[in-house]
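> forwarded from #structure-qc
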């Protein structure tokens, strides 16, 4: 067995450490006092002039993306590995930073819980990280909803632009999971309440405004991208943009502070950049380009996180984020657990909030060998971009030596540079030292053959089919009528050169969450496609994916409260 000592809860661990003054952390990155805007003593924003100066005066560090296999409903520990690996790299003498995605309140109060990492590999303070932080998500929601209000207001006041109300594609947003808001009717009641039409809500972090912040290079770029957002079409079919409605400038004003990356620290006191990017299944699922840039300028190596498995977050990291930023990765880390491969090997069932299935705790190397087909595919996906993969085996106390050996053998046979056990959850940076050595060795060699999956000038349908066949392993794509019409319309509008941000289940390589392992013989149904002209991509909706999650029967918010001393309790 790989250790069995119980450890305190994540919140107890986070509170057991006295954070360093955040200015000290900023100074280690090379930032000056005037380039840091304090939000108390433990978190801060970094000014854009500070980012630009660091980039001018410092060489760029190595760039590593953390991805994983298709996760179980409990997750496989990518955030925890991102933090633990950064701590491990620091322990072997490197200036290392973590760039971790900013959480949404939807999962915090829903089924998944917080996103600050876990155990002895966390970003602290945990409560601040998971609850509001510096208010970026609220600013995104306000900017997004301002545009929604402008649309309905314009139609109410005479509709001089000739907007066809049936074609309004700009929803409203809320950062709480609420399935009742997926489809709504606005404007009901008296005439002064506006024009009645069907509308809907998406979760704030899946908003195009979030993607714009994540992909923009500076405030000027944010303003330009906001202006390009397509909100609706006119009766003659021409697009109506945020610039046309004269709302883009006001949206930019609401985002002038949100664009600045947030600086926090790991449990061991190293820099952690926290900015943008959750929901890799329906959004692009990566932290901001600006956060990565400032970390790269102040570090020998940066560990940045991508959402869910390699077929989702990593593919979007390469094809969308790297395409936009011009940055090139040096290596990738594929996180895997024994329990996830058992599940992909046909053993057990995992239900979030329920005790772990006893079958997943039994020694079963044969199930690992069967389930390793999923890991092998994710290694192949990373290698398809010319990036060297290192497999991080995120170990649990119930894992056996035989199971870990079977997992490692499968990873190496599939072409992983290395496959290394890591006990960062229970041992912090010390438990990730061997992983850190393997990742640094791979990153030093770099990825001289890195390439994107498809060229800009490929047709949109070809881009979607390329991802489905080469990355997911599908036999092809079935475009439903709404998707087919949308793709033709976007290409006619001149958006055919945009990359693709697929929205599909995270639990399978396919569109169907029940197809575990490495499924074959399936086709991907695309029911509709949305346009994010400001962010710079189109989003095909595969299968039954929804952009507003719902709560489960016993959401995590039931556990969260304030005790008599005013402390947060029940936050995981």
């Amino acid at each position: 067995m790989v250790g069995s000592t119980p450890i305190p809860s994540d919140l107890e661990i986070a509170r057991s450490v006295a954070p360093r003054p955040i200015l000290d952390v900023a100074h280690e990155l090379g930032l000056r006092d005037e380039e840091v805007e304090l939000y108390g003593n433990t978190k801060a924003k970094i000014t854009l002039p500070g980012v630009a100066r660091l980039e001018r005066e410092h060489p760029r560090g190595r760039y590593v993306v953390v991805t994983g296999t298709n996760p179980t409903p409990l997750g496989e520990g990518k955030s925890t590995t991102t933090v633990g690996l950064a701590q491990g790299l620091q322990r072997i003498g490197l200036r290392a930073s973590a760039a971790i995605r900013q959480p949404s309140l939807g999962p915090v109060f829903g089924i998944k819980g917080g996103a600050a990492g876990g155990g002895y590999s966390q970003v602290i303070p945990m409560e601040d990280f998971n609850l509001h932080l510096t208010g970026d998500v609220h600013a995104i929601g306000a900017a997004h909803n301002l545009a929604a209000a402008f649309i309905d207001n314009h139609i109410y006041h005479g509709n001089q632009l000739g907007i066809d109300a049936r074609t309004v594609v700009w929803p409203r947003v809320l950062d709480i999971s609420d399935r009742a808001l997926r489809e709504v009717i606005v404007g009901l009641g008296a005439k002064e309440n506006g024009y009645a039409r069907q509308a809907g809500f998406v979760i704030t972090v899946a908003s195009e405004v979030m993607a714009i912040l994540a992909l923009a290079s500076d405030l000027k770029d944010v303003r330009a991208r906001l202006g390009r957002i397509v909100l609706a079409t006119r009766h003659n079919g021409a697009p109506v943009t945020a610039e046309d409605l004269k709302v883009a400038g006001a949206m930019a004003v609401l985002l002038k502070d949100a664009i600045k990356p947030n600086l926090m620290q790991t449990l061991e006191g190293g820099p952690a950049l926290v900015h943008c990017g959750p929901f890799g299944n329906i959004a692009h699922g990566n932290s901001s380009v600006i956060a990565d840039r400032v970390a790269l300028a102040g570090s020998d190596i940066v560990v940045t996180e991508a959402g869910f498995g390699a077929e989702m977050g990593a593919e979007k990291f390469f094809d969308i984020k790297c395409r936009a930023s011009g940055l090139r990765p040096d290596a990738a880390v594929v996180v895997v657990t024994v329990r996830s491969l058992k599940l992909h090997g046909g053993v057990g069932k995992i239900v979030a909030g329920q005790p772990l299935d006893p079958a997943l705790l039994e020694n079963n190397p044969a199930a690992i060998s069967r389930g390793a087909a999923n890991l092998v595919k994710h290694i192949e996906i990373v290698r398809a971009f010319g990036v060297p993969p290192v497999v991080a085996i995120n170990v649990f106390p119930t894992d056996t030596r035989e199971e870990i050996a079977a997992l490692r053998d499968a990873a190496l046979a599939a072409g992983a540079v290395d496959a290394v056990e890591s006990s960062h959850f229970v041992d912090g940076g010390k438990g990730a030292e061997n992983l850190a050595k393997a990742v640094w060795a791979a990153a030093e060699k770099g990825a001289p053959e890195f390439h994107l999956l498809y060229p800009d000038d490929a047709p949109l349908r070809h881009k979607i089919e390329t991802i489905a066949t080469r990355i997911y392993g599908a036999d092809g794509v079935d475009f439903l009528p709404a998707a087919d019409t949308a793709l033709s319309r976007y290409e006619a509008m001149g958006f055919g050169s945009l990359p693709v941000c697929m929205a599909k289940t995270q639990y399978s390589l396919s569109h169907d969450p029940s197809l575990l392992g490495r499924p074959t013989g399936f086709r991907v149904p695309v029911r509709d496609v949305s346009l994010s002209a400001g962010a710079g991509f189109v989003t095909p909706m595969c299968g039954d994916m929804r952009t507003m999650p719902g709560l489960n029967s016993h959401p995590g918010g039931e556990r969260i409260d304030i005790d008599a001393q005013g402390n947060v309790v029940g936050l995981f």
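QC bot note: The chain has a mean pLDDT of 93. The chain has 19 helices and 23 strands.
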